[in-house]
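Consortium newsletter contribution from the modelling node. Members have asked for a concrete example of what our holo predictions look like. Here is one, prepared for the NAP complex that several groups have been discussing at recent meetings.
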Amino acid sequence: MASFEALMLLPGMAEIAERLERRVTLHKLWQAADREATLAAVAPNVRAVVSTWATARVDADLMRRLPKLEIVVGFGVGYDHIDAAWAGQHGVVVTHTPGVLDDDVADIAIALTLAATRRLPQAERHLREGRWPSGAFPLTASLHGRVMGIVGLGRIGKAIARRAEAFGLRIAYHGRHKQDGVAYPYYPTALALAEACDILMVAAPGGPQTRHLVDARVLAALGRDGVLVNIARGSLVDEAALIAALSDGVILAAGLDVYEREPSVPAELIALDNAVLLPHVGSATGHSRTAMANLVVDNLLSWVDGKGPLTPTPETPWRR
Ligand code: NAP
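And here is the predicted structure:
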């Protein structure tokens, strides 16, 4: 029987290829001397695409070139780099890795909230640069008693809310739907949520539907004591508007893990003293990344064994 052939676009965690190669023929596109020629040669028999990073885009143009494509397995819960809508319309299943990274990402969300509000990196620089003997670090804002507005109260948003409540924050949220069984106040727009909160936490998916959901108007509504935290995707926030809002004191501070054009971060943002910037490390722990790698492999092997995908995306629900 012919071996199951899969196309891997970029290298990922070593265990992904190691485990998959025991069961399937893996074409490693990044190793090809001539990417186009290799793709043309393997395309007729490829039945799966393995996308290990958000930079490994799987768009309609690529999928159209793979006539036997059945499944795209993605690494990460966000899959805005995979055209899942097109896949769903063309009978291709897309899987992602939800649930296994929620706690680590929520921890980073709270860390950024604390760091931006209490100016922790700035305070540390004050000490390291020898400025303490010449003067105490200036007073900062505090967290307790404030309202955290969560854009996207999903798996990660709820894990953030649980932690934020322990810090004495009240929670409100925005999503496309008011959720049954959720007691937090619901706001039908990001603008209304921003007006009602002090810390705006962005935890919704990226992609065209949420592009620039946080724009200049939303930042103005958040106000001069407001803090923006984004652990979701850079595309949700209008970065130019954010730079202007931070520069002009329209909002107090921002804590960011994600950017519009990663890994490139605008010099204007880096220069701002009221922005705390992390290099997309929300899920970057050994625990979460190993669980994500295992789920990528388990999804594909479950498919190869005829048992269907384990964690398909909502756009490509699995019906036997
Ligand atoms: P999830 O469980 O699917 O939750 C997403 C939430 O966003 C839902 O509550 C949904 O509510 C809301 N939402 C969806 N579309 C929306 C829209 N157009 N406007 C407003 N709200 C919308 O997803 P999750 O597992 O919590 O992950 C959330 C995101 O975090 C991922 O998509 C990913 O991009 C990001 N992430 C980042 C990192 C990192 O390292 N920084 C790590 C993991 C995940 P409704 O359905 O009611 O709209």
